Amino acid sequence: MRRFGMVAAVGAGLMVLALAVARHPAGAASDGATVTGKVKFVGKAPANPAIDMGEEPKCKAKYTAGPTDPQVLAKAGMLANVFVYVKSGLAADAKFPAPSAPVEIDQSGCLYHPRVFGMMVGQGLAIKNSDGVLHNIKALGKKNRPFNISQPTNMVTQRPGFTVPEVMLPLECNVHGWMHAYVGVLPHPFFATTGEDGAFALKGLPAGTYTIEAWHEKYGLQTATVTVKAGETKTADLTFTAK
Questions:
Q1: 17 and 113: one domain?
Q2: Do 57 and 23 have their domain in common?
Q3: pLDDT value at residue 14
Q4: pTM for this one?
């Protein structure tokens, strides 16, 4: 009876452990920390360059006002299209599987959407042409192998993505010289791109001390250091100043 009772107790304990693992599997960010913040902009934002789309009426027709190259999108003291990511602080042996779903970039109105984005090493890239005009997308990788593909009409091209980290990797169109986009390729999922409110959130971080870097195509880099405990949320604002 005593042995049976001990076996039953052990079995019950294993069942509780199994339920706990099911709710919080290994590698899940059940106790992950979060770094949030806003990317602020000080000064007067420059006017974005006008684009002459006279030879692309299909693209030009998508704009009620004259199209411009959106190099700087600053509103109410906040800066959009800033790529924010964990530059250092993660364990050297940390592994993060790439998502099975590809990241999509669209060519609409003869501009890239999104203009600034992130993806993981090994994640697929879906390149979409919504314009129905000839586009030629060129990846200017320095650490990754460059590619150059044509899309003559409405279509989606599936690419295998990139093999090593690279921040930032430029994309451009040989047909339309004003078309530019930038992708941050990382071995982990801790990155974000700011919208008009300048906000970002890096979720699911292990406890530790991190260097957070913010990249903007015109204003360069800003960094912050933040230490987080398990399950903690910290704020790390960054500021860019007009030149």
A1: no
A2: no
A3: 40
A4: 0.87
